[in-house]
Design brief:
Layout: E1 5-8, H1 14-22, E2 26-30, H2 34-41, H3 52-56, E3 68-72, E4 83-86, H4 101-111, E5 119-122, H5 130-143, E6 152-155, E7 174-176, H6 181-192, E8 199-201, H7 205-235, H8 240-247, H9 269-279, H10 285-295, H11 297-311, E9 320-324, H12 340-349, E10 353-357, H13 363-370, E11 374-375, E12 383-388, E13 404-412, E14 423-424
Parallel strand pairs: 1-2, 1-4, 2-3, 4-5, 5-6, 7-8, 9-10, 9-12, 10-11, 12-13, 13-14
Length: about 425
C-alpha cells in the first residue's frame, strides 16, 4: 500500500505538519480532544497557526480519501496508516522534572493499532534516549510486536515557532533519523518530499534528540546572560538596550535581548537535558544556572516596578496596576508556561490590584490554567502603574497617557516604548 500518515496530537506542532503532509498524502489527524476535532473540521484553528482558508483547502470528510486531512478522535480511523508521527507536548512537573505522561499515553494509543512494517516517528522534544528507552517499550508491550523486526521508529524534532508566519514548517530545515539505516532513509525521504528547506539526516535517533534539546538550551543560556547584564546595568544606571545596540555593531555579537523566558520549549527543554545528565552523575552547572536566573526574572520585574512606584510616591498596598499581555510571546494566543504569571503573582503579593488585558489570550483558557481573570478589551480606567509584558502589535498604538494617573509608572519589559517608559529591563 502507499504512504498513509497519522499525526498524533493536533496542537501547535501537529496541525501545521498534518496540513503540510495532507497536500501530498492521505493524512489522519488524531487528537483525544473532541472539541479540538470539531473546531478543525469546521475550518477553525484556535491556535491561529493555520488560516481557515489553508485548513479548508486540505480537509476531507473520509479517512479513506486518496489525499487530504481527515481529523478524528476515533482510533479506528488510524488503523490502516503505516506512518505514525507523535507530536504531543512534553512538559515539566511542579518540581521541573520531565513529565513523559503524554508520550506514554500516545505511545499506548499507537501501540493498539501498530502493524508489521509500520514506522513510528516522534517529534516531541525529549532528552537523548527517550524514544528508544521509554517510548519503544510501551509500543512493544501494547502491540505485542518486536522493535526493529516487526516495526520501526524515527525521530525528527519539531522546530515550530508559534505565531511565526514567516518561518513556517516547510521553510525550516528538518533533522531526521531512524532506528536502522534503511528506515532512516525512508524517514528522511518522507520529510524531504514536503519540506522545501531540505533535511539533515542525523546518524542516530539519540543524536537527533540531543540536537533538539541543545538548540533551546543554548538560547536559554544566552537570554540568561543578557538578563544578568540587565540587572547589572540597572544597578549602574546604564540603559541595557543601548549597550546591546552598541555591542551589536560587531559582526559576531549575538543579538539576544533581556526578557521573560516562558513557553513550552526554551523554558522547559533545558530541564530535560539536565535530568538526563544528573542520572549519569553529572551536575550541569551552566544549564541550571541559566534556568535559575531566567525563572527569577518575573519576581525581579515586579520588584523594579514597585521601586519605581515608591519613588513616585504611590502607595503600594491597594494600588491598581494594568498588566498588558499574558501570553508567553507576542502576537500569539499560547499561554503555556508564561512567565507573566510570575510577575502578576509577585505584584499581588505586594498588595497590588492587578488587571490583565490581553487581546490574544482566551480568558477561559487563562482561568483554567492559572485561575486568573483577563479581558480582551482595553480598560477605560486610569492606573497607578502599567506594565507592558508582551510586545503584541496592538500595544504599539495605545495612547498610554489616557491610562495613567498623575504619578503613575509605565514599565516596559520588552523595550518597545522608547522614551514613554519610566523603566525597562
Amino acid at each position: 500500500m502507499g504512504t498513509k500518515i497519522a499525526i498524533i496530537g493536533l496542537g501547535y506542532v501537529g496541525l501545521p505538519l498534518a496540513r503540510l503532509f495532507a497536500t501530498k498524502y492521505p493524512v489522519v489527524g488524531f487528537d483525544i480532544n473532541q472539541n479540538r476535532i470539531d473546531e478543525l473540521n469546521s475550518g477553525n484553528d484556535v491556535t491561529l497557526e493555520i488560516s481557515e482558508e489553508s485548513l479548508k483547502a486540505v480537509l476531507v470528510t473520509s479517512s479513506t480519501a486518496e489525499k487530504g486531512l481527515f481529523c478524528s478522535s476515533n482510533l479506528e480511523d488510524i488503523k490502516d496508516c503505516n506512518y505514525y508521527i507523535v507530536t504531543v507536548p512534553t512538559p515539566v512537573d511542579k518540581n521541573n522534572r520531565p513529565d513523559l505522561t503524554p508520550l506514554y499515553k500516545s505511545s499506548e494509543t499507537v501501540g493498539k493499532v501498530l502493524k508489521r512494517g509500520d514506522i513510528v516517528i516522534y517529534e516531541s522534544t525529549v532528552y537523548p534516549g527517550v524514544t528508544e528507552e521509554e517510548c519503544i517499550p510501551v509500543l512493544e508491550k501494547t502491540s505485542g510486536l518486536k522493535f526493529n523486526i516487526d516495526f520501526f521508529a524515527g525521530y525528527s524534532p519539531e522546530r515550530i515557532n508559534p505565531g511565526d508566519k514567516e518561518h513556517t514548517v516547510e521553510k525550516i530545515l528538518k533533522v531526521t533519523s531512524g532506528s536502522t539505516p534503511e528506515i532512516a532513509q525512508k524517514v528522511n525521504e518522507l520529510y524531504k518530499s514536503v519540506i522545501t528547506a531540505g533535511t539533515h539526516l542525523a546518524p542516530s535517533i539519540k543524536v537527533a534528540e540531543a540536537a533538539k534539546v541543545i538548540e533551546n538550551s543554548q538560547r536559554d543560556i544566552n537570554i540568561a546572560f543578557v538578563n544578568e547584564l540587565a540587572k547589572i546595568f540597572n544597578l549602574l544606571e546604564i540603559d541595557t538596550h543601548s549597550v546591546l545596540e552598541a555591542a551589536g555593531t560587531k559582526w559576531n555579537f549575538l543579538p539576544f535581548k533581556p526578557g521573560l523566558v516562558g513557553g513550552h520549549c526554551i523554558g522547559v527543554d533545558p530541564y530535560y537535558l539536565a535530568q538526563k545528565a544528573q542520572e549519569k552523575g553529572y551536575h550541569p552547572e551552566i544549564i541550571l544556572a541559566g534556568r535559575r536566573l531566567n525563572d527569577s526574572m518575573g519576581e525581579y520585574v515586579a520588584s523594579q516596578v514597585v521601586k519605581l512606584m515608591i519613588k513616585k510616591g504611590v502607595t503600594i498596598n491597594g494600588a491598581n496596576l494594568l498588566m498588558l499581555g499574558l501570553t508567553f510571546k507576542e502576537n500569539c494566543p499560547d499561554v503555556r508556561n508564561t512567565k507573566i504569571v510570575d510577575v502578576v503573582t509577585a505584584l499581588t503579593d505586594y498588595g497590588i490590584q492587578v488587571t490583565i488585558y490581553d487581546p490574544w489570550a482566551k480568558p477561559e483558557e487563562v482561568w483554567h490554567e492559572y485561575k486568573l481573570k483577563t479581558t480582551n478589551s482595553l480598560p477605560t480606567d486610569t492606573f497607578d502603574a502599567l506594565v507592558l509584558g508582551v510586545a503584541h502589535q496592538e500595544f504599539e498604538t495605545i495612547d498610554y497617557t489616557k491610562l495613567r494617573k498623575t504619578n503613575s509608572v509605565l514599565f516596559d519589559v520588552k523595550g518597545i516604548l522608547k522614551e514613554q517608559a519610566d523603566g525597562k529591563l
